[in-house]
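Researcher: I'm preparing a figure for a lab meeting and need a structural model of a single chain. I don't have an experimental structure, so a prediction will have to do for now. The sequence is pasted below. Please return the structure as tokens so I can convert it later.
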Amino acid sequence: MSQSSPTARPARELRDLLREGEAVTIVCHNNPDPDCLASALALGRIAAAAGVEEWRIAYSGEISHQQNRAFVTLLDIDLQPFDPAMARDRPAGSLLAFVDHSVPGRNNRVPADAPVDIVVDHHPAEDIDARFVDHREGIGATATIFTEYVRDLDADLDEELATALLFAIRRETLEFLRGTTRAEYEAAGYLHERADTALLRQLASPSVTGATLDAIATAIEHRRTRGSVLISNVGRTTERDALPQAADYLRTLEGVETAIVFGIAGRSIHLSGRTTDPRIHLGDALDDAFGDVGAAGGHQDMAGGEVPLGVFADYTDDDEALVDIVEQVISARLVAELRLSEESSG
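Model: Understood. Here is the structure written out token by token.
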């Protein structure tokens, strides 16, 4: 495994590895966001410039957040549904790359034993194993790393790619208010004059579906606070990406430092949380609470998780009763993990 560093010129190491391949499959994490999608697009462009004959971007889950859908549509990003065979049955000369995630089977549907060639990520992670690894937890966005690559390789940066990378950095750092480093400002300065400002405005203000508004309204109605922690649920929803939007909104409620929202989407329970409390590492807290039954984790101030309905669904075929059971069990685990008082207020 090669653990790259700024002094090792990781962009050139990456280019040299890409030149060994004839094709590369770039795997996004489940339900990819702009940081993941822009990074995948940048890696594809770098691969093409390195002489790779074929590259493709694959993802699992859904692209349901209105901003993510607008990102894919307006930038005309060609995506393919991920098939495990893409990782398991690769021909000689075919490379497998992860962007914005790092470990097979974690927040992706890649078989856990699949060998990975390239990993570029900024999320906390352990046990990363690949031929090329550029893992920088201190950086605010994976798109920042790819902007560095584009600069170091003097790659062709058209309006489309510049706009994608700039929007991804802005979105991932919440307009430079979360996890921002000097590298994000330098990357944004480099990208700004090359980006399409009109397109940036379109991406920043996509239309919102009625189902998203309904989910946020339900989260507001069901909120319960224990001290500075707010926990809410949206019941069953078709809008998984309404959960982080609800968490963002509820975190701004007076007296609230931590907001966690969960709900059932498809055959899984999804969670999303936000905090400004320095005593809580939200990614670790959700991992400790749900890592034994699902996948959860993230940053200190922003995290999420997914728990298969599994055994919950075995208790009842009554959907209303199922929602009640999920609400009780998920809330109880959060209360226990965060050591909250059982007393709550609406």
